[in-house]
Inverse folding.
């Protein structure tokens, strides 16, 4: 069967074989990017904190979006031509994101409940329990992945989770676009490509017109930001696929790409140039997908591979650890000693109201040591989280998806545009 979309004209047979490839270097870069975002959020003043590259590392969220679009296209684009394929895809992606998201949310709610008990006993708080970013109604918003639609007026509960919400709904937009192009519009040549580009252009238009701080849209226009990056990742994969039979021989290309990213992120700030982030990261993803240079050789080790594997847990636990193992202990120490260890000058509000203070430690070495300890602790927590929460959650939803596929097969599904199912490469 042929379809007039991205899988047509010989492309479908290529994609059928594509998922045997595992982009190991890109997976490793995902772990590094997750740590950079965590350091960006960490409000401890140090030589690292003050670097322009670190202060603008919020942009690596856009790297995640582009990389997701690249990898999801590689793994799933040829399996979204049937309703059964779309349903299986949605369940698997829900299983990838939702279990850990809910566990972290539950942990935050439990701690907020403990604050409420303390408040009932007479303890005073600057921000009363279950108000503002930790309001009761926002719990439901978070449970249904609704925190990047502008339903809330600020980041809530686990602030970085806005991007997880945006990514899940972007998955569904992508799946619906491919399904419509490969079934309802299959008579039209390049229907899927036209639809994908149209959605991409619409997301960019909304983002540029409405976002107030460059591309740094989160709880308000975060979905448009994610669609922009994800769909550009889709285009990046198509370009890589067309060029994949070539062998990159320039050893300087990877080094150049790395220098370009550092320079761009350092200079972009919150200016209009941030709207170029998906293009810059698309170039990086394209280059490192070949795994053909000296930087790739350095990245291919077990340590980086493990960071890539636990990158989602790193991303999801960072705020919880900062709130409860950095900010609150420092606040308690200030109350006990009467000495101030924080300042509001130049403090980042990247994590919402909870990050309104900057922790200032004596000397230059101690802040660096504290930052490294934070990263080490985060990696340990993420490793445990991967085994106890992520893997079981993925396996549960994989079984549910398998049941859906089995039930559809027994029902004799012969939907137009059906293609052969293939293996899965893990993605964030």
């Amino acid at each position: 069967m042929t379809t007039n979309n991205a899988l047509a004209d010989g492309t479908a047979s290529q994609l059928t074989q594509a998922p045997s490839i595992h982009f190991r270097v890109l997976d490793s870069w995902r772990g590094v990017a997750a740590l950079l975002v965590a350091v960006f959020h960490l409000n401890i003043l140090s030589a690292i904190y003050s670097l322009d590259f670190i202060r603008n590392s919020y942009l690596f969220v856009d790297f995640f979006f582009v990389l997701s679009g690249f990898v999801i296209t590689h793994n799933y684009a040829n399996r979204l031509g049937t309703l059964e394929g779309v349903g299986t895809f949605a369940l698997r992606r829900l299983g990838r994101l939702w279990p850990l998201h809910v566990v972290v949310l539950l942990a935050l709610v439990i701690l907020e409940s403990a604050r409420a008990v303390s408040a009932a006993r007479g303890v005073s708080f600057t921000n009363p329990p279950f108000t503002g970013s930790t309001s009761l109604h926002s719990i439901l918003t978070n449970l249904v992945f609704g925190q990047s639609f502008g339903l809330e007026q600020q980041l809530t509960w686990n602030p970085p989770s806005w991007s997880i919400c945006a990514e899940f709904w972007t998955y569904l937009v992508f799946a619906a676009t491919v399904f419509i192009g490969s079934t309802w519009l299959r008579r039209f040549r390049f229907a899927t490509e036209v639809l994908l580009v149209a959605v991409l252009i619409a997301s960019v238009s909304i983002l540029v017109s409405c976002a107030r701080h460059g591309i740094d849209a989160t709880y308000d226009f975060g979905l448009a930001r994610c669609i922009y990056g994800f769909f550009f990742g889709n285009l990046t994969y198509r370009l890589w696929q067309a060029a994949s039979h070539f062998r990159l021989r320039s050893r300087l290309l990877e080094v150049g790409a790395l220098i370009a990213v550092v320079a761009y992120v350092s200079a972009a700030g919150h200016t209009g140039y941030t709207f170029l982030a998906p293009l810059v990261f698309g170039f990086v993803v394209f280059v490192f997908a070949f795994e053909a240079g000296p930087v790739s050789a350095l990245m291919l080790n077990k340590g980086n591979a493990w960071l890539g594997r636990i990158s989602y847990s790193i991303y999801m636990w960072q705020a919880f650890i900062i709130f409860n193992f950095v900010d609150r202990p420092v606040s308690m120490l200030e109350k006990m000693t009467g000495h101030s260890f924080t300042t509001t000058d130049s403090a980042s509000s990247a994590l919402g109201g909870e990050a309104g203070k900057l922790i200032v430690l004596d000397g230059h070495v101690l802040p660096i040591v504290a930052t490294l300890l934070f990263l080490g602790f985060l990696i340990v927590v993420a490793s445990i989280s991967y085994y106890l929460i992520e893997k079981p959650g993925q396996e549960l939803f994989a079984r549910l998806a398998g049941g859906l596929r089995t039930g559809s097969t027994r029902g004799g599904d012969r939907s137009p545009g059906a293609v052969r199912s293939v293996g899965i490469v893990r993605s964030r």
Remarks:
- Residues 365-410 form the longest helix (46 residues).
- The mean pLDDT is 86.
